[in-house]
Structures are given as structure tokens and as C-alpha cells.
Amino acid sequence: AAPYLQVTDLQVHFPTEDGLVRSVDGLTFSVDKGQTLGIVGESGSGKSVTSQAILGLHRGSRARLAGSVRLDGQELLDLPESELRELRGSTMAMIFQDPLSAMHPYYTVGAQIVEAIRVHHADVSKKAAKERTKELLARVGIPNPAKRVDQYPHEFSGGMRQRAMIAMALANDPSLLIADEPTTALDVTVQAQILDLMRDLQQEFGSAIIVITHDLGVVAEMADEVLVMYAGKAVERGPVDDVFYAPQMPYTWGLLSSMPRLDRVRQARLDPVPGNPPSLIRVPAGCAFHPRCAYREHVPQDRCTTEVPELLPAQQSDHLVRCHLMEERRRELFETHVKPR
Ligand code: SF4
Ligand code: MG
């Protein structure tokens, strides 16, 4: 059967006065129900734009979209806005980094979740929706839901607000959940609690989940598969264990080198990879990562600066990498330069 979400050769380009911004440039991936995909990369790598494109949030903007986004077999890119709006908040839901920006300050948390339910289920009474809201608040670990339901967002702590937003996202049992930096604004202890909660909910609800993050600790905790993005493209993709223990692409090495012993460590933070992310208007020729890559002299004939590498199978067929290094040389470099750190 086809995967639940299939994104194929997605492009999101924004025309600007300075030129065309290629935010997403030929991205292909899929996620099944019950599966979590982690999309990781620096800011500006195209990961948030990807999730917005799936949700159809670029409608009416100047963005040029191409490729295909199929959800349960249905093409979303040319779906009428009214049908897309029907899917958003019901079949597809989103958890944002900053609940305050997603919640209205003048309405109680309960009223907003009730509204989220009734927008998609006009036949549910306010009373029934409020009962369901209390259940949801309890389910995401908010103590005393009967009182909390009538409080305003500013009366919640950051962690409780994030729980409330997860409750809102779950209000209509979404089968695709997209979480964009879901724990970035929270302190470390609360982050761990929210990740635990999301993992529990994943098992309970079995939705397809996309977690977008710059934090490899979050990916290690949550994801089954990882997609590493650089300059709008996938540069490495594969099962989380393969990517963590046998990363193939020098950019991924850079991302991982801040993680002690390349081990799965909760809350490991990223050190920035040296150098700056590229311009998305004048993307470097060849491999977009080449200005920052310490290993390109290991590729003969200057191919790194002239030839765009393809995304090809590495060791296993489901582990893909976009890099000109020969497999043997890559393994050797990883063993001698990267792993011992
Ligand atoms: Fe580095 Fe070349 Fe591989 Fe790009 S293709 S990551 S520049 S070695
Ligand atoms: Mg972002």
C-alpha cells in the first residue's frame, strides 16, 4: 500500500526582488501511520517551510509550489482551499514552538479547544465539547482540568501551555501530526516531560508524526526515521539508528559531533556546524555544503564544487546520502576523524 503521507519532489520557491529563494528544492519522503519522522537541520534549511507546504499554509502567498503531497492517496497541492481548511485541525494538526502565538490571549484555553472541536463537528454541543476538552486536558497531564479549562493562556506555565496546545492539536484525533520545534522554548526538565507525553500519545493514537527540530536529542527520543535537510534538500535520510551510529554525510557528522560519544543522550544540544548556512538565492554550485566541508579534497576532480550529488543508497538501501565521497573513503574518514571525538 502507498504510505499515508507521500511527499514527492516538493519545491517551494519564493520570488523576491533579489531573486528566487529556493526554500525547498526537490524533497521526497514518506511517513506512515504509527511512524515518526524527524526532520533536522539548521534554521533556513527548509524544514518549517516543508511543514507549512504540507498544511497548505502558503496558499494566497507568492510562493511557487511544485511536486506532490499525497495524504491517504489524495493530492493536497491542488485541493481547493475550503477542503484543505476542513483537513487542517482535524485530519492534520500542528504543534508549534510557541503556544502563545497559536493561542488567543483573550479566550480561555477551554474555549479555544471547544472551538477547535466545534469548527469540525458542528453537531457536537458546547457542553459535550467542554467535557471532551477536560478529558483532553487530563490526558495530556494537566492537573485539575475542571478549573484549568476556564483559565486564560497567561495563567498557564510554559510547559502547561505546551500541553494545552498538544490537547488542542489532538482534539479531533488527527492522523497526521506535525510538531515544529515542540520543546525548544521549554527548560530541559519540561522538555523531557513533553517528549515523554508525545511518545505516549504516539503509541495511543497511532498517527503519523513529523517532528521538525534543530535538536538531535529530540530526534533520538522521538523518531523512527531521520531526514537531514540542507539548503532545501535532503542530504541524508534513514532509520534513526543507522543515521546516529553510522552517519554518512559530512554535514550530519558536524551536527552529531556535539553529541557525546555519538550516543543517544537525552537533551544533547547541537553545537553549530562551523561556517554559515548558504544563501537560498545563490545556492553554492555542486554540493551546497562544499564551502563548509572539511572533506572535499577526498573527492577527486573537484566534483564537490561542480556536480550536485544525488541522494543515493549508502550501506543499507533505506539509508540514503547525498555526497560524492566513495563509500570506503567515507567509512575511513568517519572512523578516524569523526568517531573518536
Ligand atoms: Fe563534502 Fe563533497 Fe560530500 Fe559535499 S559532496 S559533503 S562537499 S565531500
Ligand atoms: Mg523553523
Helical region count?
Answer: 13
* Structural class assignment: alpha/beta
Here the CATH topology equals: Rossmann fold
Largest sheet: 8 strands, mixed
Distance between the termini: 43 Å
CATH class: Alpha Beta
CATH-wise, what's the superfamily?
P-loop containing nucleotide triphosphate hydrolases
Query: Which runs of at least 5 residues are low in confidence (pLDDT < 50)?
Result: 260-270
Could you characterize what this model shows?
It is a peripheral membrane protein. GO terms for molecular function: ATP binding; ATP hydrolysis activity. By secondary structure, this protein is an alpha/beta fold. The protein contains 13 helices and twelve strands. It has helices at 47-55, 81-87, 99-102, 109-120, 126-139, 145-148, 158-170, 188-205, 216-222, 240-245, 250-256, 303-306, 327-338, and strands spanning 5-16, 19-31, 36-40, 64-71, 74-75, 92-95, 176-180, 208-213, 225-230, 233-239, 311-313, 320-322. An eight-stranded mixed sheet has the order 6-7-8-3-9-10-12-11, with helices on both faces. Helix 4 packs parallel to helix 7 (158-170), helix 5 (126-139) crosses helix 7 (158-170) and helix 7 (158-170) runs parallel beside helix 8 (188-205). Magnesium ion (MG) is lined by residues 43, 48.
